[in-house]
Amino acid sequence: MAKCSHCGKSTTFGHKRSFSMRASNRTFKPNLQKTIVMEKGRVVRKVLCTKCIKAMSKSVA
User: Fold this and answer.
1) Which helix (H) or strand (E) holds 60?
2) Which of 16, 35, 39, 42 is the most interior residue, by most CB within 10 Å?
3) What is the C-alpha separation between 53 and 11, in angstroms, rounded?
């Protein structure tokens, strides 16, 4: 299953609601991206959610 390697965010489940408020199942998927990150002086490829990518770029700059 797709999962962010930093925060552990993964697919969650909920309901679609039609106009008549009838519930049918749906999934909420995180926006995961393959990125290259410097970790302990090494270049590492990781799958991160966009929230983590944004937070990491803010901490570096």
Assistant:
1) helix 50-60
2) 35
3) 18
